[in-house]
Amino acid sequence: MNLVKKTISILSICVFSLALALPVSAKVEGDTIILGAAVSLSGKYSTNGEHTRNGYNMAVQRINDMGGVTVGGKSYKFDIIYYDDESDSSR
After folding, report:
1. Least crowded by CB within 10 Å, which of 20, 22, 79, 90?
2. Per its UniProt record, what InterPro entries does this chain match (predicted)?
3. Which is nearest to 75 in space by CA: 32, 44, 16, 15?
4. Hey, CA dihedral for 32, 35, 36, 40, is it positive or negative?
5. What burial class does residue 39 get, using C-beta atoms within 10 Å of its C-beta: 0-12 exposed, 13-18 middle, 19+ buried?
């Protein structure tokens, strides 16, 4: 039980950090909250972008596997749409 609480705490911190770290937009479609994230999936920072995307996917999968999030008594799952900024700061 203690491991579950610790895991939930760590995931909560990761998701909160995610929300603060990158410009993210969100919208709700049915029972899904869709998040948008701009990451470098190509170009010179693509390795970092891949790690970031893998971390986001892991967190979303874990949260969804645990039932998603409950807002106002209704459960929602997460989905992420990625935008490749091509490692270009002008984009």
Report:
1. 90
2. Leu-bd, Peripla_BP_I
3. 32
4. negative
5. buried
Helix (H, G, I), strand (E, B) or coil at 16: helix
- In the chain, the DSSP E strands lie at 24-29, 32-39, 69-71, 74-84
Of residues 19, 7, 17, the one with CA closest to residue 80? 19
Per-residue pLDDT of the chain (91 residues; tens, 9 = 90+): 577 777 777 766 766 666 655 555 566 677 898 999 999 999 999 999 999 999 999 999 999 999 999 888 889 999 999 999 999 877 6
What whole-number distance in Å separates Cα of residue 75 and Cα of residue 59?
17
